[in-house]
Amino acid sequence: MSIRVFLCDDHELVAAGLRALLSACPNVEVVGEGRTVEEAARLVRRLRPDVVLMDYDLGPGQHRNGVDGVAAVTEGSPHTKVVMLTQYDDHRIVIDALRSGAAGYVLKSASRDELLAAIRMAHEGGALLSPGVQRRVVNELSERSAISDVVAEQIRESLTDREHQVLKLLCRGLANAEIAEELHVSVSTVKTYLKSIFEKFHAADRVQVAVAAVARGIVSFPELKR
Q1: Domain boundaries, the chain
Q2: Strand 51-54, strand 81-86: pairing
Q3: Of the four listed, 64, 73, 154, 214, which is most buried by Cβ atoms within 10 Å?
């Protein structure tokens, strides 16, 4: 079954390029486009896509940006996931987007594979940050992490070897199916490990786990490159 994608970008040529790129990808279908937050929210409410690719800067004269668009889109279609696709790598925008409920943040300079990974992960209920902004976000949020060093040490000691492997792959941005392939286990087994990891971190989603894990050194940056 194809992942149904909606595009929200005020530049027609950019949207056309994205449409052409995604149309050539198997299991991805572009079902509509919008140029403003209002138009996107209206069309998404009717089309019910799986994922929306939302630009941040929707052009001069627009009173609402892509972060506003996340809330507007998901209010009318709660199951739809929004991935911010933008040129800005400002950690403040990234944090605002994630707080608004975005299921990923990808730079327009990203490769096709990275964009597809973000779409697939959002569709699966996960979240992905472009590697180019991940370090900035982690550094910014490390001081705000709800997990103290003491609690982080307790989590580190409680993780099994396999859970740590899954956690490391999660922090690298791999989707459940990719983690399963990497570890030669089933997707259901990966979900079981993730459930245990989420409980140990007292976290509700992958982004919270990843930020806390890297900010508190449970997963190190060298591990993310392996």
Answers
A1: 3-129, 145-224
A2: parallel
A3: 73
pLDDT in 10s for each residue of the chain, 226 residues = 799 999 999 888 989 999 999 988 889 999 999 998 889 999 999 999 999 999 988 755 555 687 888 888 988 898 999 998 888 877 778 777 877 788 888 888 888 888 998 898 888 876 677 766 666 666 665 555 556 778 888 999 999 999 999 998 888 777 788 899 999 999 999 999 999 999 998 887 777 788 788 777 888 754 554 4
- Which pair of structure tokens corresponds to residue 80? 């739809």
Q: Tell the CATH topology of 145-224.
A: Arc Repressor Mutant, subunit A (1.10.10)
Nearest CA to 50 among 112, 103, 106?
103
Global model pTM greater than 0.90: no
Report residue 68 as tokens: 């506003």
- Contact between residue 153 and residue 136 where contact means Cβ atoms under 8 Å apart: no
Q: Under a CB-based contact definition with an 8 Å cutoff, are residues 194 and 163 in contact?
A: no
Burial 10-23 (b: 16+ CB within 10 A, else e): beeeebeebeeebe
d(CA 69, CA 75): 10
